[in-house]
Amino acid sequence: MIKIDHLKKVYPNVTPLKDVCVEIHDGDVISMIGPSGTGKSTLLRCINQMEMPTSGKVWIDDVEITDPNCDINKVRQKMGMVFQSFNLFSHMTVIENIMFSPMTLLGKKKQAAYDDAMRLLRMVGLAEKALNYPDELSGGQKQRIAIARTLAMDPDIILLDEPTSALDPTMVGEVQAVIRDLAKTGKTMMIVTHEMNFARAISNRIFYMDEGGVYEDGPPEQIFDNPLREKTRRFIRRLKVLELDIENRDYDFLSMPGEIEQYCNRNQIPPRMTHRIQLAFEELTQQLLIPVLEKPRIHTVIEYAASEEKATMTVQYGGPEADFTKTGDELPLAVLKSAVSEMTYSRRENADLPNQILLSIRE
Amino acid sequence: MRKSFALALMLLLTLALCPTALADNSMGGVYQSLSDLNGKRIGIQVGTDYELIVWDLLPDAECIFYNSYPDLAAALETDKIDGFPGDEPVLKFMAAEDDRLVVLPEDMNPVKMAYVLPKSAKGDRLREELNAWIRSATASGELDEIAYKWIEGPESEKNVPDYANFPAPNGTLRMLTEGAYTPMNYYRGTELIGFEVDMTARFCEACGYGLIVDAMNFDGIIPAVQAGKADFAAASFVIAPEREEMVNFSDPYLVCGTLMTVLKADASVSDGASFWKSVENSFERTFLRENRWQLFLQGIWNTLLITVLSMIFGTVLGFIVFMLCRNGNRLAIAVTGVVTWLIKGMPMVVLLMILYYLVFGSVAITGLAVSVIGFTLTFSAAVFGLLQMGVGAVDRGQYEAAYALGHSNRHTFFKIILPQALPHILPSYKSEVVSLIQATAIVGYIAVQDLTKMGDIVRSRTYEAFFPLIAITIIYFVLEALLGLLIRRIHVNINPKRRSRERILKGVKTDD
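YS: structure for the whole thing
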C-alpha cells in the first residue's frame, strides 16, 4: 500500500502539486490522466523520490520513505520505473541491461540472472535481440526491453511515466500489449498516459489530475462515462468552454460577438456553427432576455465537444420563473429556433440564477 | 604555443632538407671590420648586457635577442642577423668548429668574468673563500695554467678532477652553470666540463668541499642563485653594475675581450652531391662523437619521466578534484575554479618559474620534481575539464534509470556514467598528452636537462643549426606516437562496444 499524505511540490515558477492525499492499495492498476502541466509525472516521480517533495509524506506499507533516514535505494529496488525516453544503458547489450541490476544489487549469480533475463526477453518477444545494443533497436523494442529490465528486479510496484508518448504510432500497440499483460499479474501499477482507451482497458482506478492534485479519483466507468466533477467531464469529452457574464444593462454588448468568434477560431469550430452560436447568443440575450428582465444578470456557458463536433449553450438568469422559449417575442424566437436543434427550460429553485435554458446548436 | 613550436621545427626540417633554400644567403655582405656593421642586425644573447656595448659602438644597429649561442649561430647562417658579439674564447672555438663563421679582430670591450653569489651571509662567506683562492691561484700561476689549458690547449689535455667523488669534510657546494658555452662550460659525452668547472673543482678540492654542478638556461641562473637554489654560479658572468644590484660578484677569474662574429665570405653551402655526405657528417658529430647519444638518452629519459609522471599524477588529481566538485560542493567548486583559472591563464614557463623560485624558493627540491608538480597541475586542470565535458555529455536519463533501479550515487557514476563518458574523453585526452610532452620542452629554464635542453647542449658543441633540432623533432614525434599508441590501446580496451559475444556471456550456459 502506498499512502500519500499532504504532498506538495513547488518549483521556482510553478506549483504542480498543492496538497495531495491519496491511498493506493496493493494490486491497484491506476492510470493518471489530465491536461499537461497538472503534476501527473511529478506525482509519480515523488513516489520514488526522483523528485524530492517540498513537503508531505509518502509511506510504502509502514515505511515512511520521505524520512531522510530511509534508505531510498532499497525502496527503489522494489519499485520499478519505466520512462518516456526508455533510458536503456547505452554501453551495455540488451541482456546486460537486464542482468546488471539483479547481479549487482540482489547478488544474483550470473547464470541465474541470465536465465531470468532470457525468460523476460521471451515474455516481451525480444529474445533474439539479447546481444544487440540499444541503439540498434526501434523505440518500441527499447521500451519493451526497459520494461523487462524493470521486471528483472521483481518489483512490487511499477511506475510508468508516459511509456508510449515518445513512440511512433505504429509501435504504440506492441508496448501497450506488454503493459496490458503486466496489468493482469497483480502488481501495483501507476501509469501516466494520454491514451484514454488504453487507460480504461487496463485500470481499475483512474486519477484525473487537475488543480494541483487528484481532482477526481474513481473507477474507469465513473471517470469516463459519468464523471462527477465539471473539469473531469470537460476533459473526458474534450470540451472547449467559453463563459460570458452580463452583470447589468450597461454591459459591453459589442465585444461579446468578438469574444465568441475568437473562441471559435481558436478551437477550429466550423464557420457555419460559429455563426449559429453568435446568432443564438444575440437573439436570446439581447432580444429576449435583456429587454424584459428587471435585473439583467445573465451567465452564459458555451461548450464545444471536439470529439463529437457538437456545441451547447447554457444560459442562466435571475428573477421569477420565466420560460422565454415559450413566451418570448415571435420574431427573435423564430430566429433562435433556426439556429438551434433543441431548446429546454428548467427551473432550479435554490440556485443563484434559478432560470436555465439549455440550447443545442444546430449542426 | 607548443603546437606552433612544433610547426616551426617542421618548417626548419623542410628548410634543412632542401639545399637550395640556404643558397640564397647574402654572400655579398661580408664585413671586414666592426664599423661595417653599423645599421645592421646584431644578435644578442638574452641575459647579457652586450646590447649596451653594441649601442655604444654601433649606434644605428638593431639588436635582436636569442636564447643561446647555437641559436645565434643558426640565425647568422640563415641571414636573420648580420653578426653577434661574444666572449673571445667562446667565439674562437665556435669559429674553429663551424667553418662558415669568422671572428672580427677588433676587441669591442675587455670584460672581467667572476663568480655570482647570493646576497646572504652564507654567500659572503663563500665569496671570501673564493677570493682568497683566486688570489693565491693567480699568484701561483695556477689560474693562468688552467685558462691556457682550456682556451688554447689540445682537447686531449682538457680534463677536470673527479669532483663528483671529492671527500666533503666542509659540506657540498651546489654550482649552476649553462653547460652550453664551450670552452668555459660544456658537455663532453655526459660529462660536464670546461674552464669554469675545472677551476671550481680545484677550489673545492683545496678548501675541502664536495661539488655538484647543474646546468640550466643562462637567463635562469641569476634568479636561481637569488632564490638560493644554488650556492653560487659560474657561467662566464661579466661583472656589470646592474647585476651587482641583484647578486654579489667574486674577484674576476678571467679577463678577456669581446669580439664580433660574422659570416665568412666564401661560406660554402652543401650542394646536392655532398648533401648526404653532410648529413652523415652531422649525424656523426651530433650523435656518435664523444658518445653524445648518451646525452640524448638522458634527455629522453627526463622528458619521458616528467611526461609520464605528470600524466599519471595529473589524471589522478584531476579525477579526485572532479569527484569533489561533482556533488555540488560549493567550496570545492570555488577553489577549483580559481586555481584552474590561474593555471590555465598563465604561460607554462611563468608557472614553472613561479613554482621554482617563489613557491618552492626556500625548499631543497630538484627542478625535475618542480617540473612534475607544475605539469601535474596543468594536466589535472585539463583532465578536470575533459571529465566535466565527457560526463556532462551523458544523458540525464541514464542517471535516472540507474537511480530508479536502486543503484547508489557512487555505483551509478562508476558503473553507468563513467564507462559511457570515457570513450568520448579519450581522443581529447590523447591530444592533451601530446601537448604535454611538447610543453615539457621548456623545463631547461629550471635546471632540468630534458630532450630539448640536451639538444641545445649538443648544438653548443657542434654549432650545427639544424641537424640536432631535426633529430629532436623526430624523437619527439616518436615519443608522441608511442604514447598515442598506448592510449589508443586503452581506448580499444575500455570501449564496451568492442567486446566479443563470448566475453559478454562468459561463464553462462546459453541454450543455443
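YS: worth flagging: The CA atoms of residues 102 and 264 of chain B lie 5 Å apart.
IM: good catch. Also The two ends of chain B are 58 Å apart (CA to CA).
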